[in-house]
Specification:
Length: about 350
Amino acid sequence: MGDAERQRVVLDAARVASMATEAGQTALRSVVRDRATFDELDGFNNRSLWVFLRENERFCMAEEVLYNDERRRGRSWSGFEVEKGCTVRKDVGSVAAFTAAIRERFDTPNAHVDIFDRHRVLLDDLECDLVQIAIYREGAAEDVLGFDEASKIARRVVRPVFEAAMTYEPATGVVEVVAGSRKDRVDLTRLMAKHLLGIDFEEKYVPLREYDLSVLLKPYSFPTDPEDGIESVTVREFRLLDPAEPGERIELLSPKDARRTIWDMARHRVGLGADKVAPAFPSEFSGETPDWAISRAVINVRFRPAAGGGRGKSLTLTVTMPHGCDLKDMTPHERLIGEKYLRRWNILKEEADARHHAG
């Protein structure tokens, strides 16, 4: 092979490998046409390579799905409520009008839009139907250093490409947008509503998720379903606040080999759950128990070992009041397990009537 051809093979192999993960497999499965054959293949690498070779267009779509889903509910994400049951227009004229509007909004000569149907896995193996829109636009020219053909340093002018992603769920009327700033996300949704949905857009945000850790103020048993293979659930960390002294906090950490639970530790150290406290600093404490609030908890979920033996996997969930959780940083399967049980344990509440943070 020549240098260019060989480099192309190396880069393609890297793309295949990047989708040979649990998150990548979920993305591939959400768009692949021949699911039956895909599911029969053994191993993440085999499945990823098969889609790359047999359904390359779908492989590219899966990369766009992964880009979107890995950023859901992160700093570059916003969700909006629009009309339910709309049909996303995919005809040439509507897509051209949407693309032209993007070029005008971002003052760029080049923009590209892909629109395709996909699925998203929900709890209990249910799926919802989505339409995803991938948006690419050319940015302003940048002056960068590089080597020329004579291996000398030279300045080159390049125009970076910026990516954005949108999804529309007809069943709920929710539009989710991943883009650089909140203004960009609002404007993209407005343009999408006008040109692809044919509706007026009102800036109505999807409510934030709200977490409540008050259930953990007393020892909790954490009920689970046998089919999920969970061996144990343990609270490893508490961050406690006294509402009377909001600027102060106490953190308790319970190691894996601890002889007592974190509630025993909290009762002994700060009097959590006790009528009176044995003051650690008599000159400062009156002896009355503060009305403690838990502002953060770290929960460890340990799974039973697989049939082949070995150590069981574990999942660590960090929940921070009122809207913080690291579920967005986990694999799709971990997110499903985490969301299921945070709801079961009454930690994940109904979504609050609050706007998503500005980014």
